[in-house]
Amino acid sequence: MQEKGTISIHTENIFPIIKKFLYSDNEIFLRELVSNAVDATQKIKRLSSLGQYEGELGDLRVEIAFNEEAKTITISDRGIGMTAEEIKKYINQIAFSGATEFVEKFKEAKDANELIGKFGLGFYSAFMVADKVEIQTLSYQDGAEPARWICDGSTEFEITEGSRTERGTDITLYINSESEEFLSKYKLQEILDKYCRFLPVPIKFGTKTESEPDGEDEEGKPKYKSVETDNIINNTSPIWTKAPADLKDEDYLAFYKELYPFSEDPLFWIHLNVDYPFNLTGVLYFPKVKNDFDLQRNKIKLFSRQVFITDEVKDIVPEFLMLLHGVIDSPDIPLNVSRSFLQADSNVKKINSYITKKVADKLSELFKKDRKEFEQKWQDIGIFVKYGMISEDKFYEKAKDYALLVNTKNELYTFNEYQEKVKSLQTDKNDQVVYLYSNDAAKQDAFIQSANNKGYDVLLLNSPIDSHFISHLEQKLEKTSLKRVDSDVVDKLIVKEDNPAHVLTEEQTTQVKGLFEKAISKPNMKVEVESLSPDELPVHVTMDEFMRRMKDMAQMGGGMGFYGSLPDNYKVAVNGNHPLISRIVNTEDEEEKSKLAKQAFDLALLSQGMLTGSDLTEFVKRSVQMI
Protein backbone atom coordinates (compact mmCIF):
# COMPACT_ATOMS: atom_id res chain seq x y z
CA MET A 1 0.00 0.00 0.00
CA GLN A 2 1.46 3.33 -1.05
CA GLU A 3 -0.19 6.51 -2.11
CA LYS A 4 0.69 10.14 -2.56
CA GLY A 5 -1.72 12.99 -3.01
CA THR A 6 -2.68 16.56 -2.19
CA ILE A 7 -4.63 17.63 0.86
CA SER A 8 -8.08 18.84 -0.21
CA ILE A 9 -8.01 22.51 0.65
CA HIS A 10 -8.83 25.62 -1.33
CA THR A 11 -5.65 27.60 -0.83
CA GLU A 12 -1.93 26.91 -0.91
CA ASN A 13 -1.56 29.24 2.05
CA ILE A 14 -3.61 27.28 4.59
CA PHE A 15 -0.64 26.40 6.80
CA PRO A 16 0.61 29.97 7.31
CA ILE A 17 -2.97 30.86 8.23
CA ILE A 18 -3.16 27.99 10.71
CA LYS A 19 0.19 28.87 12.24
CA LYS A 20 -0.35 32.60 12.58
CA PHE A 21 -4.05 33.36 12.79
CA LEU A 22 -6.20 30.32 13.48
CA TYR A 23 -5.02 29.72 17.04
CA SER A 24 -4.49 32.40 19.64
CA ASP A 25 -1.83 30.47 21.55
CA ASN A 26 0.47 27.81 20.12
CA GLU A 27 0.46 25.72 23.32
CA ILE A 28 -3.09 24.55 22.57
CA PHE A 29 -1.71 22.06 20.00
CA LEU A 30 -1.31 19.64 22.90
CA ARG A 31 -4.86 20.24 24.13
CA GLU A 32 -6.26 19.51 20.65
CA LEU A 33 -4.26 16.34 20.08
CA VAL A 34 -4.86 14.94 23.56
CA SER A 35 -8.58 15.75 23.21
CA ASN A 36 -8.69 13.86 19.92
CA ALA A 37 -7.01 10.88 21.58
CA VAL A 38 -9.54 10.97 24.42
CA ASP A 39 -12.42 11.17 21.92
CA ALA A 40 -11.07 8.14 20.05
CA THR A 41 -10.76 6.26 23.37
CA GLN A 42 -14.32 7.09 24.43
CA LYS A 43 -15.60 5.94 21.06
CA ILE A 44 -14.08 2.47 21.42
CA LYS A 45 -15.53 2.20 24.95
CA ARG A 46 -18.95 3.16 23.60
CA LEU A 47 -18.75 0.75 20.68
CA SER A 48 -17.83 -2.03 23.09
CA SER A 49 -20.78 -1.22 25.36
CA LEU A 50 -23.11 -1.29 22.35
CA GLY A 51 -21.76 -4.66 21.20
CA GLN A 52 -20.25 -3.13 18.07
CA TYR A 53 -16.74 -4.10 19.17
CA GLU A 54 -16.10 -7.47 20.81
CA GLY A 55 -12.33 -7.39 21.31
CA GLU A 56 -10.48 -6.74 24.56
CA LEU A 57 -10.39 -3.07 25.46
CA GLY A 58 -7.14 -3.37 27.41
CA ASP A 59 -5.45 -0.34 28.96
CA LEU A 60 -7.29 2.70 27.57
CA ARG A 61 -5.06 5.43 28.92
CA VAL A 62 -3.65 8.14 26.64
CA GLU A 63 0.12 8.60 26.82
CA ILE A 64 2.31 11.60 26.05
CA ALA A 65 6.06 11.15 25.51
CA PHE A 66 8.85 13.35 24.22
CA ASN A 67 12.40 12.80 23.00
CA GLU A 68 14.61 15.83 23.43
CA GLU A 69 17.39 14.48 21.18
CA ALA A 70 15.08 13.45 18.33
CA LYS A 71 13.02 16.62 18.92
CA THR A 72 9.72 14.72 18.90
CA ILE A 73 6.52 14.71 20.94
CA THR A 74 4.23 11.67 20.62
CA ILE A 75 0.59 11.34 21.68
CA SER A 76 -0.59 7.72 21.80
CA ASP A 77 -4.00 6.15 22.39
CA ARG A 78 -5.71 2.77 22.17
CA GLY A 79 -8.92 4.17 20.73
CA ILE A 80 -10.75 3.29 17.53
CA GLY A 81 -7.81 4.00 15.22
CA MET A 82 -8.21 4.78 11.51
CA THR A 83 -7.96 2.98 8.21
CA ALA A 84 -6.12 4.56 5.27
CA GLU A 85 -9.50 5.55 3.83
CA GLU A 86 -10.51 7.23 7.09
CA ILE A 87 -7.22 9.14 7.18
CA LYS A 88 -7.99 10.50 3.72
CA LYS A 89 -11.52 11.34 4.80
CA TYR A 90 -10.85 12.85 8.22
CA ILE A 91 -7.31 14.21 7.99
CA ASN A 92 -6.82 15.22 4.37
CA GLN A 93 -10.18 16.94 3.94
CA ILE A 94 -9.65 19.84 6.28
CA ALA A 95 -12.64 20.88 8.36
CA PHE A 96 -14.51 17.63 7.68
CA SER A 97 -15.34 15.82 10.89
CA GLY A 98 -16.35 12.24 11.38
CA ALA A 99 -18.69 13.32 14.14
CA THR A 100 -21.85 13.52 12.04
CA GLU A 101 -21.35 10.08 10.53
CA PHE A 102 -20.50 8.55 13.91
CA VAL A 103 -23.54 10.00 15.68
CA GLU A 104 -25.84 9.03 12.81
CA LYS A 105 -24.59 5.45 12.94
CA PHE A 106 -25.01 5.14 16.70
CA LYS A 107 -27.83 7.62 17.32
CA GLU A 108 -29.61 5.12 19.53
CA ALA A 109 -26.85 5.69 22.07
CA LYS A 110 -28.17 8.07 24.72
CA ASP A 111 -24.92 9.96 25.14
CA ALA A 112 -23.59 9.77 21.58
CA ASN A 113 -23.12 13.54 21.50
CA GLU A 114 -20.49 13.21 24.18
CA LEU A 115 -18.38 11.08 21.85
CA ILE A 116 -18.04 13.56 19.00
CA GLY A 117 -14.42 13.76 17.85
CA LYS A 118 -12.66 16.89 16.78
CA PHE A 119 -10.67 15.60 13.83
CA GLY A 120 -9.91 18.16 11.13
CA LEU A 121 -8.67 21.60 12.03
CA GLY A 122 -7.92 20.65 15.63
CA PHE A 123 -5.40 18.11 14.36
CA TYR A 124 -3.71 20.68 12.15
CA SER A 125 -2.83 22.83 15.14
CA ALA A 126 0.16 20.43 15.32
CA PHE A 127 1.77 22.40 12.51
CA MET A 128 2.00 25.45 14.76
CA VAL A 129 4.97 23.79 16.45
CA ALA A 130 6.05 20.98 14.07
CA ASP A 131 7.89 20.90 10.74
CA LYS A 132 6.58 17.38 10.12
CA VAL A 133 3.77 15.27 11.56
CA GLU A 134 3.49 11.49 11.34
CA ILE A 135 0.48 9.28 12.12
CA GLN A 136 0.79 5.55 12.84
CA THR A 137 -2.64 4.00 13.27
CA LEU A 138 -4.55 0.71 13.27
CA SER A 139 -8.33 0.64 13.12
CA TYR A 140 -10.47 -1.47 15.47
CA GLN A 141 -12.29 -2.95 12.44
CA ASP A 142 -11.75 -6.64 11.68
CA GLY A 143 -9.12 -7.17 9.03
CA ALA A 144 -7.90 -3.58 9.13
CA GLU A 145 -4.31 -2.94 8.12
CA PRO A 146 -2.02 -0.46 9.84
CA ALA A 147 -1.53 2.83 8.02
CA ARG A 148 1.10 5.56 8.17
CA TRP A 149 0.47 9.18 7.14
CA ILE A 150 3.17 11.83 6.97
CA CYS A 151 3.13 15.50 6.00
CA ASP A 152 5.90 18.10 6.11
CA GLY A 153 3.70 21.16 6.52
CA SER A 154 3.10 21.66 2.83
CA THR A 155 -0.12 20.61 1.11
CA GLU A 156 1.48 17.29 0.12
CA PHE A 157 1.05 14.11 2.14
CA GLU A 158 2.05 10.47 1.87
CA ILE A 159 0.16 7.36 3.03
CA THR A 160 2.00 4.05 3.30
CA GLU A 161 1.65 0.80 5.21
CA GLY A 162 2.06 1.40 8.93
CA SER A 163 3.94 -0.43 11.63
CA ARG A 164 1.44 -0.31 14.51
CA THR A 165 0.41 -3.75 15.77
CA GLU A 166 -2.23 -2.74 18.34
CA ARG A 167 -5.50 -0.88 17.89
CA GLY A 168 -5.15 2.90 18.25
CA THR A 169 -3.09 5.83 17.04
CA ASP A 170 0.32 7.43 17.59
CA ILE A 171 0.77 11.01 16.43
CA THR A 172 4.40 12.14 16.36
CA LEU A 173 5.35 15.79 16.01
CA TYR A 174 8.83 16.71 14.75
CA ILE A 175 9.21 20.01 16.59
CA ASN A 176 10.46 23.02 14.64
CA SER A 177 13.39 25.14 15.78
CA GLU A 178 11.15 27.99 17.01
CA SER A 179 9.18 25.67 19.30
CA GLU A 180 11.90 23.71 21.10
CA GLU A 181 10.66 25.14 24.41
CA PHE A 182 8.02 22.38 24.28
CA LEU A 183 10.72 19.70 24.47
CA SER A 184 10.75 20.10 28.23
CA LYS A 185 9.15 17.94 30.89
CA TYR A 186 8.29 21.04 32.92
CA LYS A 187 6.68 22.85 29.99
CA LEU A 188 4.62 19.87 28.85
CA GLN A 189 3.50 19.14 32.43
CA GLU A 190 2.42 22.78 32.76
CA ILE A 191 0.28 22.61 29.60
CA LEU A 192 -1.23 19.26 30.55
CA ASP A 193 -2.09 20.58 34.03
CA LYS A 194 -3.75 23.61 32.48
CA TYR A 195 -5.86 21.95 29.79
CA CYS A 196 -6.13 18.25 30.55
CA ARG A 197 -6.28 17.81 34.33
CA PHE A 198 -9.98 16.80 34.29
CA LEU A 199 -10.23 14.78 31.07
CA PRO A 200 -12.40 11.62 31.40
CA VAL A 201 -9.66 9.18 30.27
CA PRO A 202 -6.41 8.67 32.24
CA ILE A 203 -3.52 10.67 30.77
CA LYS A 204 -0.03 9.34 31.44
CA PHE A 205 3.01 11.59 31.14
CA GLY A 206 6.17 9.75 32.14
CA THR A 207 6.71 8.66 35.71
CA LYS A 208 7.04 10.30 39.11
CA THR A 209 8.76 9.39 42.35
CA GLU A 210 6.58 8.63 45.37
CA SER A 211 7.22 7.35 48.88
CA GLU A 212 5.62 4.17 50.15
CA PRO A 213 5.86 2.31 53.49
CA ASP A 214 8.84 -0.04 53.81
CA GLY A 215 8.51 -1.72 57.18
CA GLU A 216 10.06 -0.36 60.38
CA ASP A 217 13.55 0.55 61.54
CA GLU A 218 15.30 -0.86 64.59
CA GLU A 219 13.46 1.54 66.87
CA GLY A 220 10.10 0.51 65.48
CA LYS A 221 9.57 3.71 63.50
CA PRO A 222 8.02 3.40 60.03
CA LYS A 223 10.41 3.45 57.08
CA TYR A 224 9.68 4.63 53.57
CA LYS A 225 11.21 3.94 50.18
CA SER A 226 11.07 5.82 46.91
CA VAL A 227 9.32 4.13 44.00
CA GLU A 228 8.71 5.16 40.41
CA THR A 229 5.03 5.20 39.44
CA ASP A 230 3.09 6.27 36.37
CA ASN A 231 2.49 10.01 36.33
CA ILE A 232 -1.28 10.22 35.73
CA ILE A 233 -1.91 13.94 35.41
CA ASN A 234 -5.71 14.05 35.54
CA ASN A 235 -8.72 13.49 37.75
CA THR A 236 -11.09 11.60 35.44
CA SER A 237 -14.20 12.17 37.58
CA PRO A 238 -14.23 15.81 38.72
CA ILE A 239 -16.94 16.92 41.09
CA TRP A 240 -19.13 18.62 38.49
CA THR A 241 -19.65 15.34 36.63
CA LYS A 242 -21.31 13.81 39.70
CA ALA A 243 -24.84 14.14 41.05
CA PRO A 244 -25.21 16.63 43.95
CA ALA A 245 -26.96 13.91 45.97
CA ASP A 246 -23.76 11.85 45.87
CA LEU A 247 -21.59 14.64 47.27
CA LYS A 248 -20.87 15.97 50.75
CA ASP A 249 -19.69 19.40 51.86
CA GLU A 250 -16.18 17.99 52.28
CA ASP A 251 -16.14 16.99 48.60
CA TYR A 252 -16.98 20.53 47.47
CA LEU A 253 -14.39 22.04 49.82
CA ALA A 254 -11.71 19.56 48.71
CA PHE A 255 -12.37 20.38 45.05
CA TYR A 256 -12.15 24.10 45.81
CA LYS A 257 -8.72 23.51 47.35
CA GLU A 258 -7.76 21.52 44.26
CA LEU A 259 -8.64 24.51 42.07
CA TYR A 260 -7.32 27.25 44.38
CA PRO A 261 -4.78 25.73 46.79
CA PHE A 262 -3.97 28.96 48.68
CA SER A 263 -7.48 30.39 49.06
CA GLU A 264 -9.66 30.59 52.15
CA ASP A 265 -12.64 28.25 52.24
CA PRO A 266 -15.59 29.59 50.23
CA LEU A 267 -18.78 30.82 51.88
CA PHE A 268 -21.04 28.43 49.96
CA TRP A 269 -21.51 27.05 46.46
CA ILE A 270 -24.06 26.33 43.74
CA HIS A 271 -24.06 23.06 41.79
CA LEU A 272 -25.23 23.65 38.21
CA ASN A 273 -26.83 20.71 36.41
CA VAL A 274 -29.21 21.22 33.50
CA ASP A 275 -29.82 19.26 30.29
CA TYR A 276 -32.62 21.31 28.70
CA PRO A 277 -32.79 23.55 26.70
CA PHE A 278 -28.98 23.30 26.80
CA ASN A 279 -26.42 21.12 28.52
CA LEU A 280 -24.55 22.69 31.41
CA THR A 281 -22.82 21.37 34.49
CA GLY A 282 -20.52 23.05 36.97
CA VAL A 283 -19.95 24.32 40.47
CA LEU A 284 -19.77 28.02 41.33
CA TYR A 285 -18.29 29.08 44.65
CA PHE A 286 -18.88 32.32 46.57
CA PRO A 287 -15.42 33.30 47.87
CA LYS A 288 -14.62 35.73 50.65
CA VAL A 289 -14.21 38.90 48.63
CA LYS A 290 -11.43 41.37 49.21
CA ASN A 291 -11.74 44.99 48.16
CA ASP A 292 -9.46 44.55 45.15
CA PHE A 293 -11.92 43.58 42.40
CA ASP A 294 -9.32 42.93 39.73
CA LEU A 295 -7.51 40.26 41.76
CA GLN A 296 -10.79 38.40 42.20
CA ARG A 297 -11.84 38.19 38.55
CA ASN A 298 -11.21 35.48 35.96
CA LYS A 299 -11.38 32.67 38.51
CA ILE A 300 -14.16 30.76 36.72
CA LYS A 301 -12.81 28.11 34.37
CA LEU A 302 -14.76 27.13 31.26
CA PHE A 303 -14.60 23.53 30.04
CA SER A 304 -16.13 21.68 27.12
CA ARG A 305 -16.52 17.97 27.87
CA GLN A 306 -13.90 18.29 30.63
CA VAL A 307 -11.38 19.98 28.31
CA PHE A 308 -10.27 23.36 29.65
CA ILE A 309 -11.09 26.17 27.22
CA THR A 310 -10.54 29.50 28.93
CA ASP A 311 -10.98 31.54 32.08
CA GLU A 312 -12.32 34.49 30.05
CA VAL A 313 -16.01 33.79 30.66
CA LYS A 314 -17.55 37.27 30.54
CA ASP A 315 -20.02 36.29 27.78
CA ILE A 316 -21.19 33.18 29.64
CA VAL A 317 -21.30 34.55 33.18
CA PRO A 318 -23.07 37.83 34.03
CA GLU A 319 -20.62 40.64 34.74
CA PHE A 320 -21.61 40.88 38.39
CA LEU A 321 -20.83 37.20 38.96
CA MET A 322 -17.30 37.41 37.56
CA LEU A 323 -16.16 37.57 41.18
CA LEU A 324 -17.34 33.99 41.73
CA HIS A 325 -14.91 31.08 41.48
CA GLY A 326 -15.43 27.60 40.06
CA VAL A 327 -16.07 25.61 36.92
CA ILE A 328 -18.60 25.62 34.08
CA ASP A 329 -18.72 22.80 31.54
CA SER A 330 -20.98 22.84 28.51
CA PRO A 331 -20.79 21.15 25.11
CA ASP A 332 -23.37 23.67 23.84
CA ILE A 333 -21.21 26.76 24.19
CA PRO A 334 -20.19 27.76 20.65
CA LEU A 335 -16.47 28.21 20.14
CA ASN A 336 -14.39 29.18 17.14
CA VAL A 337 -12.09 26.55 15.62
CA SER A 338 -9.39 27.16 18.23
CA ARG A 339 -11.95 26.72 21.02
CA SER A 340 -10.43 29.85 22.55
CA PHE A 341 -13.10 32.52 22.27
CA LEU A 342 -16.78 32.53 22.96
CA GLN A 343 -19.26 33.67 20.36
CA ALA A 344 -22.39 35.38 21.63
CA ASP A 345 -25.46 33.50 20.40
CA SER A 346 -28.80 32.41 21.79
CA ASN A 347 -27.34 29.50 23.79
CA VAL A 348 -24.83 31.74 25.50
CA LYS A 349 -27.57 34.21 26.42
CA LYS A 350 -29.76 31.41 27.78
CA ILE A 351 -26.89 30.08 29.87
CA ASN A 352 -26.18 33.58 31.16
CA SER A 353 -29.82 33.98 32.24
CA TYR A 354 -29.87 30.50 33.79
CA ILE A 355 -26.80 31.18 35.93
CA THR A 356 -28.28 34.52 37.09
CA LYS A 357 -31.52 32.79 38.10
CA LYS A 358 -29.70 29.96 39.90
CA VAL A 359 -27.63 32.41 41.93
CA ALA A 360 -30.68 34.54 42.80
CA ASP A 361 -32.65 31.46 43.85
CA LYS A 362 -29.76 30.10 45.94
CA LEU A 363 -29.44 33.39 47.83
CA SER A 364 -33.18 33.51 48.43
CA GLU A 365 -33.11 29.94 49.72
CA LEU A 366 -30.26 30.73 52.13
CA PHE A 367 -32.06 33.84 53.41
CA LYS A 368 -35.33 32.01 54.05
CA LYS A 369 -33.70 28.92 55.51
CA ASP A 370 -31.46 30.65 58.07
CA ARG A 371 -31.57 34.44 58.16
CA LYS A 372 -29.09 34.67 61.02
CA GLU A 373 -26.45 32.74 59.07
CA PHE A 374 -27.27 34.79 55.96
CA GLU A 375 -26.67 37.99 57.94
CA GLN A 376 -23.31 36.70 59.16
CA LYS A 377 -22.24 36.17 55.54
CA TRP A 378 -23.65 39.48 54.29
CA GLN A 379 -20.37 41.37 54.61
CA ASP A 380 -18.88 38.97 52.05
CA ILE A 381 -21.85 38.31 49.75
CA GLY A 382 -23.27 41.84 49.84
CA ILE A 383 -20.87 42.97 47.17
CA PHE A 384 -22.18 40.30 44.74
CA VAL A 385 -25.78 41.18 45.45
CA LYS A 386 -25.30 44.93 45.12
CA TYR A 387 -23.29 44.53 41.91
CA GLY A 388 -26.04 42.32 40.51
CA MET A 389 -28.81 44.71 41.48
CA ILE A 390 -27.01 47.54 39.71
CA SER A 391 -26.22 45.43 36.64
CA GLU A 392 -29.44 43.57 35.94
CA ASP A 393 -33.04 44.58 36.58
CA LYS A 394 -34.21 40.97 36.68
CA PHE A 395 -31.74 40.23 39.45
CA TYR A 396 -32.75 43.40 41.31
CA GLU A 397 -36.39 42.30 41.35
CA LYS A 398 -35.44 39.00 42.98
CA ALA A 399 -32.75 40.34 45.29
CA LYS A 400 -34.70 43.27 46.76
CA ASP A 401 -36.50 40.80 49.05
CA TYR A 402 -33.29 39.59 50.73
CA ALA A 403 -30.74 42.35 50.13
CA LEU A 404 -29.76 43.89 53.44
CA LEU A 405 -28.97 47.40 54.64
CA VAL A 406 -26.58 47.69 57.59
CA ASN A 407 -26.56 50.69 59.95
CA THR A 408 -23.73 52.09 62.05
CA LYS A 409 -24.99 50.04 65.03
CA ASN A 410 -24.47 46.88 62.93
CA GLU A 411 -28.21 46.18 62.71
CA LEU A 412 -29.40 44.59 59.46
CA TYR A 413 -32.69 45.26 57.67
CA THR A 414 -34.33 44.29 54.41
CA PHE A 415 -35.38 47.18 52.17
CA ASN A 416 -38.98 47.02 53.36
CA GLU A 417 -37.97 46.71 57.01
CA TYR A 418 -35.72 49.74 56.81
CA GLN A 419 -38.35 51.87 55.08
CA GLU A 420 -40.76 51.08 57.92
CA LYS A 421 -38.09 51.83 60.53
CA VAL A 422 -37.21 55.36 59.39
CA LYS A 423 -40.11 56.79 57.40
CA SER A 424 -41.98 58.28 60.37
CA LEU A 425 -39.00 60.26 61.66
CA GLN A 426 -36.88 60.78 58.54
CA THR A 427 -39.49 62.16 56.14
CA ASP A 428 -38.79 65.78 55.20
CA LYS A 429 -41.27 68.60 54.59
CA ASN A 430 -41.51 67.58 50.90
CA ASP A 431 -42.66 64.07 51.88
CA GLN A 432 -39.30 62.54 50.84
CA VAL A 433 -37.90 59.78 53.05
CA VAL A 434 -34.23 60.56 53.64
CA TYR A 435 -31.75 57.73 54.25
CA LEU A 436 -28.62 59.06 55.95
CA TYR A 437 -25.43 57.10 55.38
CA SER A 438 -21.77 57.08 56.31
CA ASN A 439 -18.87 55.66 54.32
CA ASP A 440 -16.43 56.00 57.24
CA ALA A 441 -18.08 55.72 60.63
CA ALA A 442 -14.95 56.56 62.63
CA LYS A 443 -14.12 59.66 60.62
CA GLN A 444 -17.72 60.88 60.53
CA ASP A 445 -18.58 60.02 64.13
CA ALA A 446 -19.47 63.60 65.14
CA PHE A 447 -22.02 63.83 62.32
CA ILE A 448 -23.41 60.37 63.15
CA GLN A 449 -23.88 61.31 66.78
CA SER A 450 -25.56 64.55 65.78
CA ALA A 451 -28.03 62.56 63.65
CA ASN A 452 -28.54 59.95 66.40
CA ASN A 453 -29.30 62.71 68.90
CA LYS A 454 -32.30 63.60 66.78
CA GLY A 455 -33.39 59.94 66.68
CA TYR A 456 -32.21 59.47 63.09
CA ASP A 457 -30.64 56.24 61.88
CA VAL A 458 -27.44 56.19 59.80
CA LEU A 459 -26.60 53.44 57.31
CA LEU A 460 -23.05 52.21 56.77
CA LEU A 461 -22.30 52.09 53.02
CA ASN A 462 -18.55 51.67 52.79
CA SER A 463 -17.88 48.94 50.20
CA PRO A 464 -16.07 49.79 46.94
CA ILE A 465 -19.31 49.54 44.98
CA ASP A 466 -21.56 51.55 47.30
CA SER A 467 -21.08 54.89 45.51
CA HIS A 468 -22.87 53.35 42.50
CA PHE A 469 -25.33 51.39 44.64
CA ILE A 470 -26.51 54.56 46.40
CA SER A 471 -27.48 56.23 43.11
CA HIS A 472 -29.19 53.04 41.95
CA LEU A 473 -31.28 52.85 45.12
CA GLU A 474 -32.50 56.41 44.60
CA GLN A 475 -33.69 55.43 41.12
CA LYS A 476 -35.50 52.37 42.41
CA LEU A 477 -36.99 53.47 45.74
CA GLU A 478 -40.02 55.73 45.50
CA LYS A 479 -39.85 59.18 47.14
CA THR A 480 -36.55 58.30 48.80
CA SER A 481 -33.20 60.07 48.74
CA LEU A 482 -29.85 59.17 50.26
CA LYS A 483 -27.56 61.76 51.83
CA ARG A 484 -24.15 61.28 53.33
CA VAL A 485 -24.32 62.25 56.98
CA ASP A 486 -21.42 64.72 56.70
CA SER A 487 -22.63 66.43 53.51
CA ASP A 488 -24.44 69.13 55.49
CA VAL A 489 -25.62 69.94 58.99
CA VAL A 490 -28.28 67.50 60.06
CA ASP A 491 -31.11 70.05 60.00
CA LYS A 492 -30.33 70.73 56.36
CA LEU A 493 -30.14 67.03 55.48
CA ILE A 494 -33.70 66.39 56.65
CA VAL A 495 -35.52 69.70 56.48
CA LYS A 496 -38.65 69.43 58.60
CA GLU A 497 -39.76 73.08 58.57
CA ASP A 498 -38.43 76.49 57.83
CA ASN A 499 -35.17 77.29 59.57
CA PRO A 500 -35.30 78.98 62.97
CA ALA A 501 -34.64 82.70 62.92
CA HIS A 502 -31.11 84.07 63.40
CA VAL A 503 -30.31 85.50 66.77
CA LEU A 504 -27.86 87.64 64.84
CA THR A 505 -28.86 90.86 63.12
CA GLU A 506 -28.22 91.25 59.43
CA GLU A 507 -25.23 93.46 60.20
CA GLN A 508 -23.82 90.92 62.66
CA THR A 509 -24.32 88.11 60.09
CA THR A 510 -22.28 90.04 57.53
CA GLN A 511 -19.63 90.73 60.16
CA VAL A 512 -19.37 87.02 61.13
CA LYS A 513 -19.14 85.94 57.51
CA GLY A 514 -16.30 88.37 56.81
CA LEU A 515 -14.49 87.42 60.04
CA PHE A 516 -14.49 83.69 59.21
CA GLU A 517 -13.49 84.29 55.59
CA LYS A 518 -10.48 86.25 56.78
CA ALA A 519 -9.56 83.75 59.52
CA ILE A 520 -9.83 80.75 57.17
CA SER A 521 -8.32 82.40 54.08
CA LYS A 522 -8.79 79.34 51.84
CA PRO A 523 -10.27 79.84 48.35
CA ASN A 524 -11.85 76.37 48.33
CA MET A 525 -13.84 77.10 51.54
CA LYS A 526 -17.11 78.95 51.02
CA VAL A 527 -18.44 80.49 54.24
CA GLU A 528 -22.19 80.75 54.95
CA VAL A 529 -23.86 81.79 58.18
CA GLU A 530 -26.70 79.37 58.85
CA SER A 531 -29.70 79.54 61.18
CA LEU A 532 -29.32 76.24 63.06
CA SER A 533 -30.22 74.78 66.42
CA PRO A 534 -28.05 76.08 69.28
CA ASP A 535 -27.35 72.42 70.12
CA GLU A 536 -25.42 71.94 66.86
CA LEU A 537 -21.68 72.57 66.61
CA PRO A 538 -20.62 76.19 66.03
CA VAL A 539 -19.03 75.34 62.66
CA HIS A 540 -19.49 72.50 60.16
CA VAL A 541 -17.28 71.78 57.15
CA THR A 542 -19.11 69.82 54.45
CA MET A 543 -18.96 68.96 50.78
CA ASP A 544 -22.07 69.08 48.64
CA GLU A 545 -23.75 65.62 48.42
CA PHE A 546 -23.80 65.69 44.62
CA MET A 547 -20.11 66.53 44.33
CA ARG A 548 -19.16 63.97 46.95
CA ARG A 549 -21.06 61.26 45.13
CA MET A 550 -19.66 62.13 41.70
CA LYS A 551 -16.13 62.07 43.08
CA ASP A 552 -16.70 58.72 44.81
CA MET A 553 -18.06 57.27 41.57
CA ALA A 554 -15.11 58.72 39.63
CA GLN A 555 -12.74 56.78 41.89
CA MET A 556 -14.59 53.55 41.05
CA GLY A 557 -14.81 54.36 37.32
CA GLY A 558 -18.13 54.57 35.51
CA GLY A 559 -17.77 57.63 33.31
CA MET A 560 -17.43 60.23 36.08
CA GLY A 561 -13.75 60.98 35.48
CA PHE A 562 -14.45 64.69 34.87
CA TYR A 563 -15.63 65.13 38.47
CA GLY A 564 -12.61 63.27 39.78
CA SER A 565 -10.33 65.89 38.23
CA LEU A 566 -12.15 68.85 39.85
CA PRO A 567 -10.62 70.39 43.00
CA ASP A 568 -12.31 69.69 46.34
CA ASN A 569 -14.56 72.56 47.37
CA TYR A 570 -16.18 72.78 50.78
CA LYS A 571 -18.95 74.68 52.50
CA VAL A 572 -18.22 76.18 55.93
CA ALA A 573 -21.54 76.46 57.76
CA VAL A 574 -21.26 78.86 60.69
CA ASN A 575 -24.08 78.28 63.19
CA GLY A 576 -25.33 81.80 63.84
CA ASN A 577 -27.43 80.60 66.78
CA HIS A 578 -24.56 78.95 68.69
CA PRO A 579 -23.45 80.72 71.92
CA LEU A 580 -19.81 80.73 70.73
CA ILE A 581 -20.70 82.79 67.67
CA SER A 582 -22.51 85.32 69.87
CA ARG A 583 -19.42 85.45 72.07
CA ILE A 584 -17.24 86.13 69.03
CA VAL A 585 -19.57 88.92 67.89
CA ASN A 586 -19.46 90.52 71.34
CA THR A 587 -15.66 90.30 71.72
CA GLU A 588 -14.06 93.69 71.20
CA ASP A 589 -10.47 92.49 70.67
CA GLU A 590 -10.10 91.86 66.91
CA GLU A 591 -7.17 89.46 67.40
CA GLU A 592 -9.19 87.45 69.93
CA LYS A 593 -12.15 87.35 67.52
CA SER A 594 -9.94 85.98 64.76
CA LYS A 595 -8.37 83.41 67.10
CA LEU A 596 -11.79 82.15 68.27
CA ALA A 597 -13.06 81.93 64.68
CA LYS A 598 -9.96 80.01 63.59
CA GLN A 599 -10.28 77.69 66.59
CA ALA A 600 -13.94 76.94 65.82
CA PHE A 601 -13.08 76.26 62.16
CA ASP A 602 -10.16 73.96 63.07
CA LEU A 603 -12.40 72.02 65.44
CA ALA A 604 -14.77 71.43 62.55
CA LEU A 605 -11.86 70.20 60.40
CA LEU A 606 -10.61 68.02 63.25
CA SER A 607 -14.02 66.32 63.56
CA GLN A 608 -13.71 65.33 59.89
CA GLY A 609 -10.11 64.15 60.09
CA MET A 610 -9.19 67.03 57.78
CA LEU A 611 -6.81 68.85 60.11
CA THR A 612 -3.26 67.71 59.37
CA GLY A 613 0.35 68.79 59.20
CA SER A 614 1.32 72.30 60.31
CA ASP A 615 -2.36 73.30 60.67
CA LEU A 616 -2.80 70.58 63.30
CA THR A 617 0.40 71.63 65.11
CA GLU A 618 -0.77 75.23 65.16
CA PHE A 619 -4.18 74.17 66.48
CA VAL A 620 -2.60 72.27 69.37
CA LYS A 621 -0.42 75.26 70.31
CA ARG A 622 -3.38 77.61 70.17
CA SER A 623 -5.48 75.24 72.28
CA VAL A 624 -2.80 75.14 74.98
CA GLN A 625 -2.68 78.93 75.04
CA MET A 626 -6.46 79.18 75.36
CA ILE A 627 -6.80 76.73 78.25
From TrEMBL:
Pfam families: HATPase_c_3 (PF13589), HSP90 (PF00183)
Residues reported in the UniProt entry to bind ATP: 32, 36, 77, 82, 97-98, 169, 339
Domain of life, per lineage: Bacteria
MF GO annotations: ATP binding; ATP hydrolysis activity; ATP-dependent protein folding chaperone; unfolded protein binding
This protein's UniProt keywords: ATP-binding, Chaperone, Cytoplasm, Nucleotide-binding, Stress response
Family of the protein in this entry: Belongs to the heat shock protein 90 family.
The protein's name: Chaperone protein HtpG
